[in-house]
């Protein structure tokens, strides 16, 4: 699933290529992905992309005041096309293509654009057309963005205060902190040397400060690694930069211990026992507790 660093990189990628382009048409292939009816998606035709923004994991193309907003969810991705002038008309089907945005051709007839695709059977990619980003329920409910100046140690302290919730789940809750998902919550907790099952309200001021630093540094480093990389290569870059997530059975780069996993119904987490849980493995079952 694309998370804050990848979505921010996609936003930068689109700022370089899409801003100033005139929307010729938006072709919807997977109608289930379109979550709004007013304004209609046809309203985007003829408008110019003026800015590209990120809200948590949402991408937002402002087209003369009408916003094309999308959330890539678990299996979605953005595929840039340098020239769509010769592309075949899209038809609803079982393929991965969900939506195509075509920009007006230049004097040489070259018409760039991009496509949204979604792999897998769980179709969760969501597309919105709105007059304001706040009209999208998921954006309106977002917690603070961890890379804004207003997100401070005091902000994080107020977030964890009184929360009888495991810190892993709290970091992933978009209504609490915007943009962190399963992968980067693993990476943040590894950097902070903290168990994913530690209860948030039990964190000491020193641990909160350490967690804050881990959040900001981990996300900024991931964005920096991805800067300038083409959209098609961002997935591979993300995977190569992860220290524990997706590395079950491999050696921890920090201490050399074996990275372990806890599996759930539809996801899993990875961690290093030596770095994070005092050398004790976590039970691999729901509601796991430290093995005694």
From TrEMBL:
It comes from the Bacteria. GO terms for biological process: base-excision repair. The keyword DNA repair applies. InterPro entries: FPG_cat, FPG_N, H2TH_FPG, Ribosomal_uS13-like_H2TH, Znf_DNA_glyclase/AP_lyase, Znf_FPG/IleRS. It catalyses: Hydrolysis of DNA containing ring-opened 7-methylguanine residues, releasing 2,6-diamino-4-hydroxy-5-(N-methyl)formamidopyrimidine. Pfam families: Fapy_DNA_glyco, H2TH, zf-FPG_IleRS. It comes from Herbidospora galbida. Residues 2-93 form the Formamidopyrimidine-DNA glycosylase catalytic domain. This is Fpg/Nei family DNA glycosylase. Belongs to the FPG family. Residues 243-277 form the FPG-type domain.
